[in-house]
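Backbone geometry tokens:
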Amino acid sequence: MYRRLLLPLIALVLALTTVPHTAIADAGFPSVGRNWGAPGPYATAVDVGAVTTLYYPRDIAQSPRRHPVIIWGNGTFAFPVVYRDLLLHWASHGFIVAAANTPQSNLGISMLAGIDLLASRNANPGSVFHDRVDLSRIGASGHSQGGAAAIVVGADPRVDTILPIQPGPLANVNAVGGPMFALAGQYDSIVWPTLVKALYDDADHIPAIYGEVRGADHFTVVGDPGPFAAPTTAWFRFQLMGDEEARGEFFGSGCRICSDTRTWSDVRRNPLALQVPGTTS
């Protein structure tokens, strides 16, 4: 009897604690009117370092707010420049993207080094990032081997949410602490959709969503990210910026990706994701 009473209560607590903190909703990031696939309101800049390449809003030093962070892992034998268009797209929406300069990212060590770098820059009065980095809002993403790395670093308590894109199998989702949006490609012959679905099935302790991009192969996200730009941007805008316009893309009975059969060949939401409230407008 007590177990039957406790299980719904535990599920409710998990759902509530994995919704973004409400304080960030007042941070004043400009609305893009749900046009997630279009360039955002910020001009962008790139800082290439030895370990990390930063993609960020160009005028961040004059920004009146702190900006959330996305750490990025590359696919096997790839470098950040391969994904430049996607990473700049996120930067144009107000994110600071710390991309690991490694073609072997699976352990996630270089990705986490990006957080340490930004913490140092944030504390340095001589840096353009001084006091402009929101180190309490960090997401992780990556492609292929880097997608697996995004899952690996999702075990770090500093990482609030993960978005693995066509992730390789060398990762344990059981250690991830925040919500996950796992993306597959309908025609991916390298990381088969069934592998990503298995990962999603294992993520029964966190709100998890599986999205299979219609017509996409393993390299659709490379160069022009095409159908990957809009949903990934919406996910991070909700999870890290508290953008309520993005909530309805994923949650509630009106979940927009759930009914968009032109973009998605399969969308699944686990029980904890189904308990996250939808939009009220």
